[in-house]
Amino acid sequence: MSLEGPIPFILEPQSDLRVVRAYLKDIGFEIIDEDMLSEGGKYYQIMKAVKVKEKWKACDDIGGMAENEFGPVLIKKKHPVLLEFLKRGRIIMRDFCKIRAFLHHKVPLIMIE
């Protein structure tokens, strides 16, 4: 029996996704598909990667860092769960900044959605 094309690996890392994506590039894998879901307030990303003949060049610009952090395919797909995740993170950061300002500068604390 012969297999045609590269054998895909299905990965679902629990943490350090940017490190996993960077490592995959370093060892000559390409992420060809991704999916993301949320359940119970937690987010899960699933990756499908294949070995490629040429290694991907490391990209240290903001686009490359964003792809490592959030997933190149998820970004291209404008995945709805990724958008939800990013909006949630923005709200958490905004509220954190308000609380920090209140604690350090005694400004009024107003939590507005």
Give an account of the 3D structure:
The protein has 113 residues and is an alpha+beta fold. It contains four helices and three strands. It has helices spanning 17-26, 62-70, 72-77, 80-105; strands at residues 9-11, 29-39, 42-51. The protein has a three-stranded antiparallel β-sheet. Helix 1 (17-26) crosses helix 2 (62-70). The protein starts with 8 loop residues before the first strand and ends in an 8-residue tail after the last helix.
The termini sit apart by 58 Å
Bin the strand percentage: 15-25%
Order of helices and strands: EHEEHHH
| Oligomeric category | single chain
Radius of gyration: 18 Å
Strand order of the largest sheet: 1-3-2
**Main sheet characteristics:** 3 strands, antiparallel
Q: What helical percentage do the residues reach?
A: 40-55%
Category from helices, strands and their pairing: alpha+beta
Report the principal-axis shape: elongated
Q: Unreliable segments (pLDDT under 50, ≥5 consecutive)?
A: none
If you average the pLDDT, what whole number results?
80
Record field, number of beta strands: 3
Q: Helix segment count?
A: 4
List keywords for this structure.
elongated, 21% strand, 3-stranded antiparallel sheet, 4 helices, alpha+beta, 113 residues, single chain, 3 strands
